[in-house]
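If you are new to this repository, start here. Below is one unmodified record pulled from the training split, so you can see the exact layout before writing a loader.
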Amino acid sequence: MLFDARIIRSQRRTVAVEITATGRVVVRAPMGLSEQDIAAFLEYRRPWIEKHLACRLPPLSPFTEEELASLLQKAREDLPRRVAHFAPLAGVGVNRVTVRCQRTRWGSCSAKGNVNLNCLLMLCPESVRDYVVVHELCHRREMNHSPRFWAEVERVLPDYRVSRQWLKTKGRTVIGRLDRG
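And here is the target side for that same chain:
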């Protein structure tokens, strides 16, 4: 194989490749797909893989329990204040704000108005924290990612695209510190 790739086979119908936060190439493939077909797919995706491996941030060490506890405490002070600030600007109410340490999401919002935020946002620039808060608050108006949803985000935070791009390029490295393998 061209890359040291981990192959995960399942009942899926398509083949896909991803780069984990730790820089590992993972191929998700249908059960019956041959090794040759996987190798051909990796060759086809080589430019994308090389580009994403090259722009990865250096790996960061895993968190200690003390670091996570400190982040959680800071986040529980900072993030609800941001929600309280932006909720009126978004024109929405909030039922409850919960801050946790999450491996896969920066935030979420339920139809009941419960906003969940990741304590790892404290490792992101303030503008990124604001973006995630506004993103979740705008789901109180639009529980989807339709053009109307993005128009709401832009109305509250006109330069949200910069923060969204930061999360796309650097966010996985931050969350990757939680990975154990």
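Two things worth knowing about this chain: The beta strands are 5-10, 16-19, 25-30, 96-100, 107-109, 114-118. The radius of gyration is 19 Å.
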